[in-house]
Structure formats: structure tokens, C-alpha cells
Amino acid sequence: MGFNPDCHHRRTVRLHGYDYSSSGHYHVVVCTYLKQYQFGAVINRRMQLNDLGEIACNCWQQIPSHFPNVGLDEFIVMPNHVHGIIVINNSMTPVGAQYIAPLQVDPKEKMRIKPGSLSSIVRTYKGAVKRILGRLGYAFYWQRNYYEHIIRNDEELNWARYYIRQNPANRDQDEENPVYSPKQIP
């Protein structure tokens, strides 16, 4: 069966028309493939990273060294996902080394991912983790795409920070947790 644009299309979860290289705070969640536990475990309501989790954490912390216009706020590596707040300051020229991006782009062609955008940052992070783990002999994969939320004010920023800090303690109540079992109401 060939490509049929009526049934073979991906819907974007991004805000239509929004420039994701704009200055601002973005709450991002990236998940492992099939949400498999890869990065450690929550023990006594605290996240305990394994070697893979340490690599995922280190790569996250290295994001600003690859994107000088980017800062990091609160973040945590969980057993099967990473939560973080990425801060883009586009008052500087958006630069950054994109993983598997062409060195030169034909001006007639549209670039699918804008340099310095949230997509290029997340793609570079996911690519770095996968590449390092692959070199170490791990067959590691990310889930396609990622979740993002544009943080629009201080209240949302404070909520996102609180949510990230509390994520290990609230793991048992998380519907995304594969071992989550909702309490039945009698």
C-alpha cells in the first residue's frame, strides 16, 4: 500500500503558528520507547538513577553548552521519562549544533526544524543520549515526539517547577506509570 495523505499523516501537538524559537519557558517531557523503565527507579519516593539515567541527566545538563541562547530551570530524570523546563533567550543569535542536520540548506527549500528552536534542542538532546548509549552497547530508543507546554506566566512556571520536584513522590498516582492502579470508588 502506497502513501495516502488522507490516512497517513501525523497531527502535530504544537501550537499552530507559534514560533518555538521565541524567548520563553517551555515545560518539556520526553519518554523512552513504550515508556520502558530505562533510567533507574523511584525508591522511597526519591529517584535513584542507574548508569543510563546518569547519562540522560548529564546530557540534559549539557544542553546550554550546545545552545548558548538556552538555559535550564527545574528538571528531573524519571524511570521512563525526563521532565524539564527549557528557557530560550532569543535576544542572542539562535545557534546550536543540530544532530544530523545538513551543514548547508538550499534557500529554496524550507528547513523542517528551525535552528535554535525547541524542536532542535529536544532532537539534539534525544540524539545525544541515544548515540552515547549506543556506543556503550545499549539498544536504546526514545518514544517519537515529545510533550511541551509553553509557560505563559509566573503561576504556570511555579506550578511546573513544583510538579517536577514532586514527580518522584507522586509516582504511584501517575497515570503514565505502567504500574499505576487507580483506586476503585465503592
Walk me through this protein's architecture.
This protein is an alpha+beta fold. The protein has one domain: Transposase IS200-like (Alpha-Beta Plaits), CATH 3.30.70.1290. Helices cover 25% and strands 20% of the residues. It is built from four helices and six strands. The protein has helices at residues 51-61, 63-66, 118-135, 154-166, and strands spanning 24-31, 40-43, 46-49, 70-77, 81-88, 147-151. The chain has a four-stranded antiparallel beta sheet, with helices on both faces. A hairpin with a 3-residue loop joins strand 4 and strand 5. Helix 1 (51-61) runs antiparallel to helix 3. It is globular and about 40 Å long. Residues 93-105 and 180-186 have low confidence and may be disordered.
